[in-house]
Amino acid sequence: MGLSFPDIQLLKTGYLLAALTEIELQDVLASTTVRTLSPGEQLFSQGEHCTHFYFVLSGLVKLYRIAPSGEEKVIDLVRSENFFAEAVMFMGAQYPLHAQAIEASRLAVLDGAHFLSLVRSNSDVSLRLLSNMSRRMHALINEIDNLTLHSGSQRVVRHLLDQLPAGVATSQSVKLLAPKHVIASRLGMQPETLSRVLAKLRSEHLIDVHEETIVLKDVDALLRIV
Length: 226
Prior knowledge:
It is globular, with a radius of gyration of 19 Å. By secondary structure, it is an alpha+beta fold. The protein has two domains: 134 residues, Jelly Rolls (Sandwich), CATH 2.60.120; 74 residues, Winged helix-like DNA-binding domain superfamily/Winged helix DNA-binding domain (Arc Repressor Mutant, subunit A, Orthogonal Bundle). Helices cover 42% and strands 24% of the residues. The chain is built from nine helices and eleven strands. A four-stranded antiparallel sheet has the order 1-8-3-6.
C-alpha cells in the first residue's frame, strides 16, 4: 500500500521531513511504505534491530517497557502527525521499547538506511535536521519537567489541556486518548491515583466525566492549576 496525496501532505508537517527540500523529500518518499495496524497489534519489540522509523498518519501507538516485576510502564503515546523511533535509527541500535497500536492506526514506514545515506551525503541536510531536532529536544525536556516537577493533579490537568485546540478558553469536551490505566502509566501514577484526581476535579466543578469523555467546565481555572 502506497502513500496517498493527503498522507504526503501530512508527512511534510513532521519535523524531520520539514527540513528537506522537495527533491530530497521525493527521494525519501520513494522508499516509504504504509502499514496498517489493528488495535492491540504489536509493531516491534524491545531488542529488535532498528531498520525503520515511523510517522503516525492516523491512530495511536503506545511505546512501553516491561519492568522486571512484569509491570508495564508506558513511555509515550504517539498520536497522528508525530514520528517515533527516529532517534534509534540515527544510533543504529536496537529498539529500546515495545511499540503497540492502541487503536486502528496507519503508519508511514521510513527506511532508516536510505534516510541516513541522504544525511551523510549532504552536510546542508544534516545542519537543517540538527536545528529541527534541537527544537524537538527542548520540547521533550519540557515534557520531562512536567512529569517530574509537578504534582499528580497538575500532570492530569496538563494532559487534559493538551487535548484542546490552541486558543480555546471555554468549556470543551476532550476524549481520553487511551484507556485510563495506560494514561496513568504515561503520567507516572497508579490508575487509582488518576481516578482520585479526576474525582477531585469533578467535585470542584472543574470537569465532568462521561466514560471516556471529559468536559472541561472551567478552562481558566484549570490553567491556574498548572
